[in-house]
Design goal:
By secondary structure, the protein is mainly alpha-helical. It has a domain of 152 residues. It is 69% helix and 1% strand. The protein contains 21 helices and four strands. The strands form two sheets. A two-stranded antiparallel sheet has the order 1-2. The protein has a two-stranded antiparallel sheet with strand order 3-4. Strand 3 and strand 4 form a beta hairpin. The chain is globular, with a radius of gyration of 26 Å. The termini are far apart.
């Protein structure tokens, strides 16, 4: 009876949403018909068409890429079509990642609550997951609106491009729309059945709904990435751009797998960054100790999840760029050693800021714990080591030079810097930064505990040997790379990554074993963190989002003057690479608009939100210090 009541209630709430989402299905299903109606038939070819990537034969079933005289770009005065499409597409990418990430967070948090024995803590996790699921529901509607606007903009402003892409992916577009509707229905059911399925017997069934939602969201991500990967590295088509009927080849282009991993991690980071920013803002503007404690805890939880996505991101990015080089070396050189080089320098600076900010936040977080002052002197040495890694990471392979300077040097490569700004050293720097961040986290975990195991000294020696040996091996591989040709040097990334993974996993496991039965100096006093720490957390969130926008721009700009690389050229008046300054302004504008919109969604969803569950956050006889007292803490 309970399940029947749940389903009937859900269906009553789902019907209006389904009617609205049906319009989106019709639009997606009609798009292929629109784009195919304007394609002329091609004469039969005497030679068997072959896949330009897989080199297999096939029968053309899609339109060819438009010829130069067939491409149309409507102009409306001085209106810049590309800038407007750039803005709308980036907003859709941000919101799509946000909608993908939040349900994942909600399922993870709900599962943590299920496995937590303390009922008050479990209720806190459950309430947190439900609150963010409400935001996800609002964001889903906005994502559909922005996505519809984006599709309309492409059809209106780039009709030739959409005719070709719609004709090539015509079988995939209705599937995308149907999966989107299915995800929406299950997301609505997941939210509105939360209270009705709160009983222990039904809670696991409720979690299963969340798993289905995230599975459908993952399918949407894979389908959307197929378009982006095809534009950079087309596959499944012949030399004229005609689809040869093999859907697996069309989807599985050279960059599809690395792009899937890279964008999945980026979406997790971007979604987590928004929640972190919201928690920081609410902490800084809260008027009660209870709210400060709650939002301090929320910021910590989501920073942990976001950092879990950040740590493998350098490896995912390296896999993506290695795949780019394997597909077209010229594209890789353009992105990392040519026109877009300095964008990677900016990206490197921001990644360094992320790791410095994370370590600074961990340092400030020790203000919540009794006994944390024992480890504060170590952080000074960690900061110096992180700064040294950042300088290595920032060293460019080329420098900005005037034509006369290039002529005087006899080439674009600087005689000094050109020998040092290579990927083996940069990979070594980022791997050492990851190891040092793991060491900071170990200090953080030990802050309010006294280890009691009999093998404490042996364990500490083992940890020291592990980290020192691992870091020295990474540095040795980085130096060794200077003596190898570039084609061989690229292979050093694998042993460096394996060393980092070994240090990370083994170090955390050893420390976890050592902390069994440890004496606790005192509970974590949530809310007792300096204002500087929360401002740093807010800055981390901004950096996360900005980096995601920048990397999306770099990835798209790698095609230069092609809509679809080497198949469909971009002949529009806006087919040029904008300056670094203009790109930075666009990325910043997109980030600000996205943040303001999401904060508005949070405000709307919190108007009738339940009271903040603070049981267990503020220990007895211990209250969070006020902002004036926090400012007096040593920095």
């Amino acid at each position: 009876m309970v399940v029947r009541d749940v389903m009937s209630s859900v269906m009553r709430m789902v019907r209006p949403a389904c009617l609205l989402l049906a319009l989106l299905v019709l639009l997606f299903c009609a798009a292929p018909s629109y784009v195919l109606a304007q394609n002329s038939s091609e004469s039969a070819q005497t030679e068997t068409p072959r896949d330009i990537y897989y080199k297999t034969g096939g029968v053309p079933v899609g339109p060819p890429a438009p010829a130069q005289d067939e491409a149309r770009y409507p102009r409306y005065g001085s209106f810049d079509n590309r800038t407007f499409v750039w803005f709308v597409t980036q907003q859709h990418t941000y919101f799509g990642g946000f909608v993908l990430a939040l349900p994942i967070f909600c399922v993870i948090i709900e599962l943590i609550g299920l496995f937590t024995r303390d009922k008050s803590v479990a209720a806190r996790y459950d309430c947190l997951a439900r609150d963010f699921l409400r935001v996800s529901l609002l964001a889903l509607s906005l994502t559909a609106v922005v996505g519809t606007l984006m599709l309309g903009m492409f059809i209106w402003l780039y009709p030739s491009f959409m005719r070709y892409m719609g004709g090539t992916f015509k079988a995939m577009m209705p599937v995308y729309a149907l999966v989107f509707v299915a995800e929406s229905v299950f997301l609505i059911a997941y939210y509105y059945s939360w209270d009705r399925m709160a009983a222990p017997a039904l809670k696991w069934l409720h979690v299963s709904l969340g798993v289905v939602v995230n599975s459908l969201g993952g399918v949407l991500l894979l389908l959307a990435n197929a378009w982006a990967a095809f534009m950079m590295a087309p596959a499944g088509v012949d030399a004229q751009g005609r689809y040869l009927g093999n859907m697996a080849h069309l989807l599985h282009s050279a960059l599809w797998n690395p792009l899937n991993v890279h964008r999945f991690l980026a979406d997790i980071m971007s979604g987590g960054a928004v929640v972190i920013a919201y928690a920081s803002y609410r902490f800084l503007t809260s008027k009660t100790d209870e709210e400060r404690a709650y939002y301090d805890w929320v910021g910590y939880v989501f920073l942990f999840v976001t950092v879990c996505a950040l740590l493998p991101m350098p490896f995912a990015g390296y896999w993506l760029m290695r795949s780019v080089y394997a597909f077209r070396q010229s594209m890789g050189v353009t992105m990392m050693g040519g026109l877009l080089t300095w964008l990677f320098v900016v990206q490197a600076l921001l990644v360094g800021v992320l790791f410095l900010g994370i370590n600074y936040y961990l340092w400030q977080s020790m203000g919540r714990m009794k006994g944390g002052e024992r480890y504060q002197p170590y952080f000074q040495h960690l900061v110096w080591a992180l700064m040294a890694c950042l300088f290595v990471w920032l060293t460019p392979h080329t420098v900005v030079m005037a034509p006369s300077e290039v002529k005087a040097m006899g080439g674009a490569q600087h005689p000094v810097i050109g020998n040092y700004g290579v990927m083996s050293s940069k990979n070594g720097a980022i791997n050492v930064m990851i190891c040092l961040t793991a060491l900071s986290y170990i200090f953080f975990r030990r802050a309010n505990r006294a280890i009691t195991v009999s093998w404490e000294k042996t364990g500490n020696i083992l940890l020291a040997v592990l980290f020192v040996t691992g870091i020295m091996n990474i540095i040795w591989l980085s130096v060794y790379g200077f003596y190898l040709p570039a084609s061989v040097r690229v292979g050093l990334s694998s042993p460096q990554a394996f060393t980092t993974l070994t240090v990370l996993v083994a170090g955390l496991l050893i420390n976890r074993s050592m902390m069994r039965g440890a004496k606790v100096h005192g509970p974590i006093e949530w809310g007792k963190i300096s204002v500087r720490g929360m401002v740093a957390l807010f800055g981390l969130a901004a950096t996360f989002t900005w980096v995601m926008g920048l990397m999306g721009y770099i990835r798209s700009s790698g095609r230069l003057s092609w809509h679809v690389n080497e198949l469909m050229p971009d002949l529009s008046p806006w087919a040029y690479t904008p300056s670094l300054g203009f790109a930075a302004k666009m990325v910043t504008l997109n980030m600000v608009v996205f943040w303001l919109t999401v904060l508005l969604l949070f405000w709307i969803s919190s108007r009738d939100r339940r009271a903040v569950p603070v049981t267990g956050l503020i220990p007895q006889n211990s209250r969070p210090i006020l902002p004036e007292a926090r400012e007096a803490q040593p920095s």
